[in-house]
TrEMBL record:
The organism of origin for this protein: Oppiella nova
One GO BP: glucose metabolic process
Gene Ontology molecular function, alphabetical: GDP-D-glucose phosphorylase activity; guanyl-nucleotide exchange factor activity; hydrolase activity; nucleotide binding
InterPro entries with a match to the protein in the record: GDPGP (IPR026506), GDPGP1_N (IPR058866)
Upper lineage: Eukaryota, Metazoa, Ecdysozoa, Arthropoda, Chelicerata
Protein name: GDPGP1-like N-terminal domain-containing protein
Chain segments annotated as coiled-coil in the UniProt record: none
One Pfam family hit: GDPGP1_N
GDPGP1-like N-terminal domain ranges (all copies): 32-192
GO cellular component, one term: cytoplasm
C-alpha cells in the first residue's frame, strides 16, 4: 500500500485492499498513519488553513471520577473560533448546495484521497478547520456526490477500513448525525488520534445496543 499522485491537482491517493489491514495494531505508524500525519502537519504549517493550532498532546485532559470514566478535555480554540453550525431541522435533511459544503473548500484543505483497490469505496480526507484533536481530519465519502449527513453502508465500510489501515490503537473515527452536533449537512466522519482508553470500547453489545451505558 503506497500513496500515488493522481493527475487531478496532484492530490495523493492511497489505494488499499484487505491485505493492508492491521488486525492487531502494533503501535507503530502504518503507511496510512505516515501519510495522515505528514499531510496534516504540512497543512498546519500553512496560514489560513486552520482556525487555531493543535499539536500532539497539547490539549489538557482529565479522567473524571465515576463508573463511566468520562474524560474532560479543554479546547479553547474550538469553543470560540468554530464556524457557527448550520440550522438542522430534521435527522434526514436534504443536501443544500447553496449552504456551505465540502465542495467549496480551498484546495489547501484537501489532504489526500483513499480508494479500495476494487473501486467499491472511495473518499477524500480533508482538514477540519476547527480541530478537536491532533490530526483531526474529515473523511468525506464520494465528496462530489453531495450526500446529506446520513449514515450509509458503503460510507461506514470505508470508515472502518481507515481504522483497520492504521497501525495505532489510538486512531478514532466518529460520526455525528444531524441533531447530534453535526455542523455541516454533507456526509462526513471525524478522524483523529486520541490516546485515552474509553469504556465504550469494551462494553458488550446485545441486539445491536450497548449494555451498561446510561443511554440506549
Amino acid at each position: 500500500m503506497e500513496p500515488i499522485v493522481s493527475d487531478n491537482q496532484s492530490v495523493e491517493t492511497l489505494v488499499f485492499n484487505e491485505s493492508d489491514y492491521n488486525t492487531c495494531p502494533s503501535g507503530t505508524d502504518s503507511p496510512f498513519d505516515v501519510l495522515l500525519r505528514r499531510k496534516w502537519t504540512e497543512a498546519s504549517a500553512k496560514d489560513n488553513v486552520f482556525r487555531y493550532k493543535v499539536t500532539e498532546n497539547s490539549l489538557p485532559a482529565k479522567r473524571l471520577s465515576g463508573r463511566y470514566g468520562m474524560i474532560a478535555q479543554l479546547n479553547e480554540g474550538r469553543a470560540v473560533n468554530r464556524r457557527p453550525p448550520q440550522t438542522m431541522r430534521a435527522i434526514r435533511q436534504p443536501f443544500n448546495g447553496q449552504a456551505f459544503n465540502f465542495t467549496r473548500i480551498n484546495s489547501q484543505e484537501i489532504l489526500f484521497k483513499v480508494e479500495s483497490s476494487d473501486g467499491r469505496t472511495s473518499g477524500t480526507v480533508i482538514v477540519n478547520q476547527s480541530p478537536i484533536e491532533y490530526c483531526n481530519a474529515l473523511l468525506v465519502p464520494s465528496l462530489d456526490s453531495c450526500r446529506p449527513q446520513v449514515l450509509t453502508t458503503d460510507a461506514l465500510e470505508l470508515a472502518i477500513s481507515l481504522v483497520a489501515l492504521s497501525g495505532r490503537q489510538s486512531l478514532r473515527v466518529g460520526f455525528n448525525s444531524l441533531g447530534a452536533m453535526a455542523s455541516v449537512n454533507h456526509q462526513h466522519f471525524h478522524v483523529y488520534y486520541y490516546d485515552h482508553p474509553m469504556l465504550l470500547e469494551s462494553l458488550p453489545v446485545r441486539d445491536n445496543r450497548l449494555t451498561g451505558w446510561p443511554i440506549e
